[in-house]
What we know:
Blueprint: H1 12-56, H2 66-80, H3 86-93
Amino acid sequence: MNKTGSSSVTTEAESALYADIRALVASARNTVARGVDLVQVHTNFEIGRHIVEYEQRGEARATYGQALLNLLADRLTAEFGKGFGRSNIAYSRSF
């Protein structure tokens, strides 16, 4: 027996149990990752929608000011960290 009190020899049943639990954990992690990706896509779409609506102010077409993107990128990066650079904000607007 090792220090944890378990035998270093595993039976087929123990190996099967481990494999089942491992599959559950891997599946859960994969599901969480997909969920996070979906939320991020939705958030980016909404960021872009808000920017376009602000820029258009009820008009059919917007006047595209780079200063607004730079301002938003600076402020969002200062508060939330990486992931809100000017290019990411511009990509969100293009959704």
